[in-house]
Design brief:
The protein has 150 residues and is α+β, with helices and mostly antiparallel strands. 22% of the residues lie in helices and 39% in strands.
Length: 150
């Protein structure tokens, strides 16, 4: 998150537009991988912000690998999300308007291992048994995915 950290040194906690990507990773039983985030103590999708020169697909693959230890062999673009409902104020005060490219991954490899600095836990959930404490900007993304029946 070097670019955003550098930008925050200039603008402080004021709202910024933050582009990034996340991954809806499904196992062979069609269960969704979620991570319990350390920053807001909510479950969310693996993902993060765009670095200079990166493509959105590269962000999705990098963040998935960094946060979960898993490697996306194939990603399929699900949707691009932006607008008022993707505004978020982090617990430490930074404000963002997210622009999020969400990818679906069912073809992956590796051994699941959480990033100790960002993730409290990793767990696969059945789509009809997701936890209540979902990170706010990801609620509409996950709901749209479930409603789409993909």
């Amino acid at each position: 998150m070097g670019y955003i950290m550098d930008l925050r040194k200039i603008v402080g906690s004021r709202p910024i537009i933050m582009a990034g990507a996340n991954v809806i990773l499904l196992d062979s039983k069609k269960r969704m991988l979620l991570q319990l985030r350390k920053d807001n103590n909510c479950w969310g999708l693996p993902g993060g912000s765009l670095e200079m020169g990166e493509t959105l697909e590269e962000v999705a693959k990098r963040e998935l690998r960094e946060e979960t230890g898993l490697v996306a062999n194939t990603l399929v673009l699900f949707n691009i999300f932006s607008g008022e409902e993707y505004y978020y104020k982090y617990p430490h005060g930074d404000e963002v308007y997210n622009v999020i490219a969400t990818y679906v991954c069912t073809d992956y490899s590796g051994v699941m291992e959480k990033d100790e600095s960002e993730v409290k836990a990793l767990k696969f959930f059945e789509l009809n048994k997701l936890p209540i404490e979902i990170s706010p900007p990801e609620i509409p993304i996950i709901n749209l995915f479930i409603d789409s029946g993909e």
